[in-house]
């Protein structure tokens, strides 16, 4: 009799749980991907290369299945599948609460007319065993893009974008090793960018420039305070530095052909090169380093990237 009462009680609780107002098993068994950010280069031309990136977040309760995202250029702020499609990227297995981004190097349609367009993206249905509970976050509109008659490379934008990506990838390497994130320092940015531009302009590749200046000399010239007191009571003077020189549109051993207009690829090659070199890896992962400056320059054949640490 006692066991019978326990079973009845369990069934009553189960029934009560099912009829709680507002509860939906569909919500608990869904992955709700939403578009949160889109970034594109500022200008291009018909048939020209076009770099863009898009970010999604899983607002749902289970890991997402595969979903595609189509990127478009539209003459107005309303992004639809009838607009000019640039290309698509895939998102798969995004955990609840996590975000992910993808990069795309596509090309502008040949038949597009010169003018100003809105960049946007649409999250496709893809392959999913569960419904999308909120389709309201499946479309996003970003900034404007100027389409000129002839193509010119947005070189300064590419340089800045590569520097931003180098920061992200460098911090990814520190994160997986439970190290503190490096914070971008504008004063160090100035020192790093000056050195990259100097290497590109004077065709050298070294920590010491033709005038005999090393990283500490350059920091002194910019009045950057280089004395750091550590928690263990010791101190050191100077800044750390990593440099890399990357040829583009050539087959590079271990990397294949590196495309000039793909900032994500160039940044990844830079950080992979640092991680493959023991002294560069040590500088990037040094626990005492808290700040970073990054500068990127291009001489028409090579990208030069400099990291300065403090």
TrEMBL record:
Domain (SCP): residue spans on this chain: 167-309
InterPro entries: CAP_dom (IPR014044), CAP_sf (IPR035940)
Signal peptide boundaries: none
Pfam families in the cross-refs: CAP
Source organism superkingdom: Archaea
SUPFAM superfamilies: PR-1-like
Protein's UniProt name: SCP domain-containing protein
Species per Swiss-Prot/TrEMBL record: Methanospirillum stamsii
